[in-house]
Amino acid sequence: MTIQTAVLTTSAANIYVSTGNTAITSLTLCNYSAGNVTANLFIVTAGNSASTANQMWHNLPLTSGDTYQIYAAAEKILLGPNDSIQANCSNATAVTTITSYTSI
Fold first, then answer.
1. 101/34 Cα distance (integer angstroms)
2. Sheet with 55-62, side-by-side order of all strands
3. What is the CATH topology of the domain spanning 2-103?
4. Distance between CA 95 and CA 104 in Å, rounded?
5. What's the number of CA atoms in the CB half-sphere (13 Å) around residue 42?
6. Cα-based distances in Å from 86 to 34, 35, 94, 102
7. Among residues 78, 92, 95, which one has the least CA distance to residue 10?
8. Domain extents for the chain?
């Protein structure tokens, strides 16, 4: 397994791009700021962009110091080549993500 880290901004951006067939084994969002924020998460197929058509979480509330685990244990998100996970939040540089993935 491998990990990918990112800091969210207010614009939807890649937090992980699959380079082949991969499975997301864990994904966390951590609000390390002193204030509350909201976050959005998108599962985007190759060649597309983040939109309401591929939004997984909308305005997910993250209180100050909170960590939200989206996937763990037996749950998986399966991605093909160049599929991506994109995210943004209401306050730039308030939230970090850690994505764990493995090739399948």
1. 29
2. 13-17, 84-89, 37-44, 55-62
3. Jelly Rolls (2.60.120)
4. 29
5. 23
6. 24, 22, 16, 18
7. 92
8. 2-103
Residue identified by tokens 């599962």 is 43
- Whose tokens are 């685990």? That residue is 69
pLDDT tens-digit readout, 32-60: 999 999 999 999 999 999 999 999 999 99
The structure tokens listed for 70 are 């989206």
pLDDT band at 74 (very low <50, low <70, confident <90, very high): confident
Helix (H/G/I), strand (E/B), else coil: 81: coil
DSSP secondary structure string for all residues of 24-55 = EEEEEEEE-SSS-EEEEEEEE-TT----GGGE
CA distance 99 to 89: 16
**Whole-prediction pTM value?**
0.93
